[in-house]
Amino acid sequence: MVIHQKNLSFDRNWIIFEDNYLMVLNKPSGLVTMGSTGEDSLFARALNYLQSKNKNQSKMPAKLFACHRLDKDTSGLVLFAKDDRSLKVAQDLFKRRKVQKEYRAVTLNDWPNLAQIENWPMQWKQDPQVFEKLKAMKASGKDWLEITLPLYGIKTKSRVDFEKGNEAYTRISIEQSGSDFSLLRVYPKTGRFHQIRCHLAFLGFPVLSDPIYKGPKSSPRLMLHASQLGFTWPVNKQRYDFTCPLPSIFLEMTRPS
After folding, report:
1. Which residue did the predictor score with more confidence, 56 or 198?
2. What burial letters (b/e) apply to 212-228, b meaning 16+ CB within 10 Å?
3. Hey, how many other C-beta atoms are within 10 angstroms of the C-beta on 9?
4. By percentage, how much of the chain surpasses pLDDT 70?
5. Backbone phi, then psi, for 242, in 5-degree steps?
6. Rounded to an integer, what distance in angstroms lies between the CA atom of residue 224 and that of residue 50?
7. pLDDT (tens digit, 9 = 90+) per residue, 137-155?
8. CA triplet 141, 131, 181: central angle to 5 degrees?
9. Which of 23, 24, 131, 251 makes an SS bond possible with 17, Cβ 3.0 to 4.6 Å?
10. How far apart are the C-alpha atoms of 198 and 149, rounded to whole Å?
11. Cβ–Cβ < 8 Å for 206, 214
């Protein structure tokens, strides 16, 4: 759907943080982060909001730049910069992997015990290339699975590819399990295209309602949410740790019975 920017609505409840240099928004599922000129997007709506606000306050026209992106159907935290310098600083942080990101994902709940390698599915263990890219971990009193399967992005989809793929690092733990579904904590250290979605699908646990990676259609939306974003801003050495609420459907679907 394409609509003129002046008609784009912006919900101020999306604003998690805003100052003269940065803006952090909670993107709703179903809205692209960026789009072509005039296309409905979080960027277009936020810029329209800032320009209207600045016009009313007799300020210079607002600028806005997306420092990274979320997939259209993924909800959660997105960082924007308000000037060129802040954009360059933020992009450098992402490039040097100095931004800590946490996601929540919902999958089917028949996960094995992540810390007990002997109980892992055969598909994880029968291929030596796959097995060596998986590692059982314990941290903060929880069992974790470290995934370093290389990814190769092709247009609208990624795949695990040991010849053409680039390093991709994802760490997951099971936070909560209901009768049918599990809520995962996911930490991607790298930011490859569709990294979380592809890694989980390759392991046999695609994110619910993921049409690209054949996730079970058990929910009205893709069950992936960017819940935390943290970094130290080099300009003033200030630490920022942003969080946004987990959509209620994530907890409802994984509530223990």
Report:
1. 198
2. bbebbeebebbbbbbbb
3. 9
4. 95
5. -105, 145
6. 28
7. 988 889 999 999 999 998 8
8. 55
9. 24
10. 10
11. yes
How far is 197 from 202, CA to CA, in rounded Å? 9
Q: Which residues make Cβ contacts (< 8 Å) with residue 187, sequence separation at least 6?
A: 100, 101, 102, 103, 170, 171, 172
- Residues 140, 115, 187, 12, CA torsion sign: negative
Place of tokens 């954009």: 87
Could you give the domains of the chain? Answer: 5-96 (3.30.2350.10), 102-225 (3.30.2350.10)
What is the amino acid identity at position 221? Answer: R
Beta bridge partners of 173: 185
Q: CA-to-CA distance for 144 and 141, rounded, in angstroms?
A: 10
